[in-house]
Design a protein that fits this description.
Rossmann fold, EC 2.7.4.3, P-loop_NTPase, Adenylate_kinase_lid-dom, binds zinc ion, binds BIS(adenosine)-5'-pentaphosphate, three-stranded antiparallel β-sheet
């Protein structure tokens, strides 16, 4: 089963992807994570992407679609969760082609329906474990033991450089202008399911499970 999680920055795509990985053995294909890894490694893609990401704008379609193609070839276990991809009409077309070439198809597009004003608050409070990547939030999801990752026990955490108010506003504008317009493509194919992304994290997980298990 292959699914797209669609929603603006901070909608909870990464949070819900991690749960689908843990609960169903699916594989998370996050272009944001792939690009951050490239930046960290100082690869040519990373060098090109860094300034664009720091500004909150979109990296080129060719770069991200190539990253997705590589990851599909590395194997997708029980299925792929596309997290933060596709983000433009050109990427949606590229994904169709990438899946076709591998005799695979899209089964669901889950739209996380959220209130954009509340998202700035979510994003500004976000941090992750520097070791295993588990996501946390200053108010909504603190580690059970202060300063210690629930998953791996690490005491090192990090925050993203693009998680400041000004960049978040650009990221939201990019979503509205370039990503939201791809929804009708999938609506026309009957693939879109809407989930209330403002509900508590566990409720969102249950709502997604109800769709996938229907
Ligand atoms: P990317 O990494 O994809 O970032 P994003 O889309 O801005 O999404 P986020 O990771 O910010 O949010 P999320 O929806 O995953 O929310 P999360 O679960 O973390 O992209 C970064 C950049 O890379 C882009 O700006 C672009 O430059 C580039 N890029 C990436 N992909 C690209 C592409 N395809 N094409 C071109 N460029 C690309 O949740 C947020 C916080 O809220 C967390 O703290 C979480 O704990 C909390 N939270 C989650 N759900 C809930 C809930 N239900 N209630 C309360 N709190 C919650
Ligand atoms: Zn950890």
């Amino acid at each position: 089963m292959n699914i797209i999680l669609l929603g603006p920055p901070g909608a909870g795509k990464g949070t819900q992807s991690q749960r689908l990985v843990a609960n169903r053995g699916m594989v998370q294909l996050s272009t944001g994570d792939m690009l951050r890894a490239a930046v960290k490694a100082g690869s040519p893609v990373g060098l090109q992407a860094k300034a664009v990401m720091d500004a909150g704008e979109l990296v080129s379609d060719a770069i991200v679609s190539a990253l997705i193609g590589e990851r599909l070839d590395a194997g997708i276990g029980a299925g792929a969760i596309f997290d933060g991809y596709p983000r433009t009409a050109a990427q949606a077309e590229a994904l169709d082609l990438l899946l076709d070439e591998r005799d695979a198809k899209l089964d669901y597009v889950i739209e996380l329906d959220v209130d954009e004003d509340a998202l700035v608050d979510r994003i500004e409070g976000r941090f992750t474990c520097a070791n295993c990547g588990e996501g946390y939030h200053d108010r909504y999801k603190l580690p059970t033991v202060a300063g210690v990752c629930d998953v791996c026990g690490s005491t090192e955490f990090k925050r993203r450089p693009d998680d400041n108010a000004a960049t978040v506003r650009t990221r939201m504008a990019e979503y509205r202008a370039k990503t939201a317009p791809i929804l009708p493509i999938y609506e026309a194919r009957g693939l879109v399911h809407r989930v209330d992304g403002m509900a508590p994290i566990d409720d969102v997980t249950r709502a997604i499970a109800a769709i996938l298990d229907a």
